[in-house]
Amino acid sequence: MSAAATETAVASAGPAGRRRRRPVTGSLLVGGLIVAIVIGMALLSFVWTPHDPTLVNPAVRLQEPSAEYWFGTDKFGRDVFSQVLMGSRTTLFVGFVAVGVAALVGVPLGIVAGMAPRWCGELLMRGNDLLLAFPALLLAIMFAAVYGAGTLVAMVAIGIASIPHFARLIRGGTLQVMETEYVIAARAAGRGPFAIAVRHVLPNVSSLVIVQASVGFAIAVLAEAALSFLGFGTPPPTPSWGRMLQESQELLSIAPRLAVFPGVAIALAVLGFNLLGDGLRDRFDPKLEDRR
Amino acid sequence: MAEQPTSTPLAPGPGTGPVDAISVRDVTRVYRRPRTSLRHASPPVHALRGVSFAIPQGQRFGIVGESGCGKSTLLRILAGLDRPTGGSVAIDGRDITGLRERQLKFVRERLQLVFQDPMSSLDPRMRVGDIVAEPLAAQRQGNRRERVAELLEAVGLRADAADRYPHQFSGGQRQRISIARALAPRPKIIVADEPVSALDVSVRAQVLNLIADLVDELSLTLVFVSHDLSVVRHVCDRVAVMHAGQIVETGSTEQVYEDPQHSYTRRLIAAVPTLGKALSGVSAADLNRE
Questions:
Q1: Contacting residues for B284 by C-beta, under 8 A, at least 6 apart
Q2: ipTM of the complex, rounded to two decimals
Q3: pLDDT tens-place string over residues A144-191
Q4: Which end of chain A, N or C, is less surrounded by CB atoms within 10 Å?
């Protein structure tokens, strides 16, 4: 090998920090902030709430917001602010389990469908479409009818209903990765399909998983609220934003603020996770990444 | 090409001289296309129509042709990554057509690939050291760290490159990494698919020389695919000209250049001085002088 060739190769090895960092977008920042607040609320509720959120005290029923009761009290005299704080726990718990179930099943399914022979992948995806066409809430209500209403049942049902979203997205990503030359090189090197899936496909679709997880989180939060509102979600006395909404509806004309606080909390949390998902997508879009 | 595929073993018996590194007999590859009309099926695509050639051990064999002529399909079949619809391929005298992945182990050890696009041929999420060591890991070979350092040095990269990611390197350096990975399992055959066509002209000659030097040093058999005749001329002893899924002409590089027999080859060569010089600024003569 000529010395000149070696020299230039080493000399141009200089720009080590050539990683193209794209600027943090507004949606990523705002979404991240809102999500951080929701997580902060949930963590705070473990160590401190102004009042016991489940304490029924008829003496202070339906109080207006005050220094003592920041968001006022509901018809049983329970502190609304404490309930909102505690409710964020339920919301996050729901999101994590639902997204966890969806990702744990959906990601491997998508990768298998993307790496399997064409006919097999198509078969899996048509089954996937079948599940996709099934409304998530209906599935959750069916589950609640069979296994009894409960947070966990609702979350698992929502998670199952979110599997096809993950599977379809990840299959698309997998098909793309399987076409790349580094996968062909790995095959030529003698790597088996399992090693290729774990070492090449999974790391390269991970950004898709993160984006979809954060969008799926928003969907799960909304679905839990809807289920609790319908009475198929979190049973009392565990505070849940959806059930707070439901309990507030009979008093809507007298104390509309009882609907406003949990309603705003749900809307903000969903907005936050959606914005975070959008922001992450902008940042991680595999079409933009590692391309000039 | 009119030769019928026979059932006789491709490997010559003992005493008939060295076995060809690669021998391709009457290979065809037909792709079926998805139906676009209800009334009739889409016509199939004939990517390869009866391709035959043999490459003796240690030869540098060039395959030239325009894009879409079936070069890449042929390479995939040679590497056992795709199956021909007809004909047979033998690597070191062993027929690989119809073998299962597990039976192709000897091909994985003997034949390695270098790709065209230095951006997509290296996994962006893996460190260079892991990329180069991948064939070693796949074939359960030990002493990977030392071997990787040795390989990086052989392709003109510093040893600390192993801890970095591909995006931290330029196109030419990435191609060196690709070459290091291909050499890792000590193959006897290197198949290079347009290895320099995505590179800047200034880097092209360096990478070409590197490939030529390594092939000499390690006495490898080289299959070099390109659309650029000047590049093939620089590196190869023999050349096959492909057009529309067929080999239209084969011969020693000089012979094909000095006295092209087929009209397509003549057109291809006629295009070289103008296009090649204008676009690359480097002629075969310049490359030789370096």
A1: B230, B233, B234
A2: 0.78
A3: 888 877 778 888 888 888 899 999 999 999 998 888 888 988 888 888
A4: C
Cβ(A268)–Cβ(A82) under 8 Å?
A: no
What is the maximum span of chain A, computed from C-alpha positions, in angstroms?
Answer: 91
* B154 contacts on A by Cβ (under 8 Å): 1
pLDDT attached to residue A20: 52
Query: Could you tell me the two tokens for B90?
Result: 């033998």
Contacting residues of B for A1, CB less than 8 Å apart: 154, 156, 209-210, 213-214
Q: Does B176 touch chain A (CB under 8 A)?
A: yes
Reported as a pLDDT band with limits 50, 70 and 90, residue B13 is very low
| Averaged pLDDT of chain A | 78
Would you say residue A16 has pLDDT above 80?
no
* Ordered structural domains, chain A, with CATH: 24-45+79-284 (1.10.3720.10)
CATH of B44-280, one of 3.20.20.30, 3.40.50.300, 3.30.70.360, 3.20.20.150: 3.40.50.300
Point out the residue among A16, A203, A292 whose CB comes nearest to the CB of B125.
A203
Tens of pLDDT, residue by residue over B180-237, are: 999 988 899 999 988 888 888 888 888 888 998 999 888 899 999 888 888 888 888 8
Q: How far apart are CA B216 and CA B220, in angstroms?
A: 7
Contact between chains at B124 and A289 (C-beta distance less than 8 A): yes
Measured between alpha carbons, how far is B27 from B5 in angstroms, rounded to an integer? Answer: 9
Q: How many CB pairs under 8 A join A and B?
A: 116
Higher pLDDT, A21 or A109: A109
> Is the CB of B138 inside 8 Å of chain A's CB atoms?
yes
Q: Note the pLDDT of residue A13.
A: 37
Rounded Cα gap, residues B80 and B49, in angstroms: 18
Report the C-alpha gap between B252 and B273 in whole angstroms. Answer: 20
